Amino acid sequence: MPRIPRRVALTGSLAAAVALPLTGCSALTPSKASSDGDLVLRVQGMPPATEKPALALFKKQVAEFEKANPGIMVKGSTTVFDPLTFSAKLSGGNVEDVIKVPLTEPQRLIQQGQVQPITGQLQKWDHFKEFNPQVIKQLSSGDGEVYGVPQYPYAQGLVYNRELFEKAGLDPDSPPTTWDEVRAAAKRISERTGRAGFVHESKDNQGGWQLTMLTYAFGGDLEKLENGTYAATFTGEPTKKALRLLKDMRWKDDSMGRSQLNNQNDVIKQFAAGQVGMFMGSPGTYRLAKMQFGMADTDAFGVAAMPQSGGNATLTGGDVYLVPKSADARHAAAAVKWLTFAYAQPQYSTTAAAQQAKSLAEDPKSAVGVPTLPVFDAARQARIDAAIKPYANVRTEHFEPYTEGLAGLDLKAEPPYQAQRLYTALDSVVQAVLTKRDAKIDALLAAAEKDVNAKLAADQK
């Protein structure tokens, strides 16, 4: 299922320097000592040979880690998460000592006992208490045990065109905070500018993905776990309300433009050309608008926290590094040292942040200063922001509605089991609502739920 377009779009400015897609895989043999007697630590997250700068950075990290931790030899792996094979490999112990998974996975893996808690050792790190509670909650069990370290998490919001807001007589410094306000603003933008007031993605699984965002904002979920089995819950009232909103905006208000079959790149391309007033996205979509689609007036880019309608939540994502159950005590201890050194400390360091920002700023096409979801608390993030500020080349004040509003929202990961299968089914529902005036929302959701649950049940036998 296509994930690369939105994962790229959701990566923050500093993340782009080190967070790169992984490809390839390798056969595994059990961890053991090297010929020199060193403990061999196998870690996912090594960039492929085609990504030379990132691979050089990874090798530099390995050399520095091994120097600081004599007796441990790091062996990098380019293995990428594959939802079709991951569970079988994990159950069979055929995985590395450090695994990298999307944020959809940790809660399921924790519940199934397939990963190890690392709380005790992670607490020894001087800055453990400074982790952002919103972020670390996604990697923790109900009893407070922590199981992983995040890498460049993100949270969804509302991207909007400040120039179109002004032309429509709206205040760009006070973007919508509720979905009723979004509807009203979209109608006004459409009427006064002739542009699409709001656009919702609808294909390549991104229609279902964005409907998940809306469902969370309306207070619902699209999947539940009962008696150890996952099932889709498409027919909840929050999802129905979200689709009724889209239907009204499309057919009553006529505020969603002429083109209804769009993926994320389609929407951002239209937005960059000044043809779209609002869409759901993160601050990181600024990079695509500017660098890939040539947005000329980047000062028109604005982003706010996700508007709400009873849910007080937004969808979050990113990558997470975990220690599988198959790792023995010595390898697990070495793995946590690596996680702290390679992922926690660099995201905490103001020096690293400044160095990366300075390097990026040398490219006039770059975007430095675009906010990400903070991994650490507000006080630390303020220091990181200050370190980056001298090199920022974006209007950081245009991102304030997002950063200020995000702190009050709950962060919810994507559905934990077969999310892409859910999105495939929901794409059809979204498309029907946006292209057929007489679409029957309840019937469409019921049919999609029945179809998906039959497939999920078969997968879980």
UniProtKB/TrEMBL annotation:
SUPFAM superfamilies noted in UniProt: Periplasmic binding protein-like II
Organism annotation: Streptomyces shenzhenensis
Signal peptide (from-to): 1-27
UniProt keyword annotations, A-Z: Signal
Superkingdom field: Bacteria
Protein name: Sugar ABC transporter substrate-binding protein
